[in-house]
Amino acid sequence: MKVLPGFKFNGIASGIKKNGVKDLGLIYSEVPAAAAGVFTTNRVKAAPVLISQKRMRSGTAQAVLVNSGNANACTGDKGMKAACQLSTTLARRMKIKEEMILVSSTGVIGVPLPAERIQGNIPILIGGLSPYKIGEFAQSILTTDTFPKIVMKEVEIGNKQVEIWGVAKGAGMVMPNMATMLAFVMSTASVHPATLRNLLKDGVDQSFNRITVDGETSTNDMVLMLVNGKAGNSVLTKNSKEIKKFRDALFSLLFELARMIVKDGEGATKLVEIRVEKARSVNEARTAAFAVANSPLVKTALYGEEVNWGRIMAVLGRCGVAIDPGKVHISFGKVKVVKNSVACGTEEKAQEVLKGKEFAIVISLNRGKGSFQVSTTDLTPAYVAINSSYRS
Amino acid sequence: MKVLPGFKFNGIASGIKKNGVKDLGLIYSEVPAAAAGVFTTNRVKAAPVLISQKRMRSGTAQAVLVNSGNANACTGDKGMKAACQLSTTLARRMKIKEEMILVSSTGVIGVPLPAERIQGNIPILIGGLSPYKIGEFAQSILTTDTFPKIVMKEVEIGNKQVEIWGVAKGAGMVMPNMATMLAFVMSTASVHPATLRNLLKDGVDQSFNRITVDGETSTNDMVLMLVNGKAGNSVLTKNSKEIKKFRDALFSLLFELARMIVKDGEGATKLVEIRVEKARSVNEARTAAFAVANSPLVKTALYGEEVNWGRIMAVLGRCGVAIDPGKVHISFGKVKVVKNSVACGTEEKAQEVLKGKEFAIVISLNRGKGSFQVSTTDLTPAYVAINSSYRS
Question: Taking the complete model, does pTM exceed 0.80, yes or no?
Answer without folding.
Answer: no
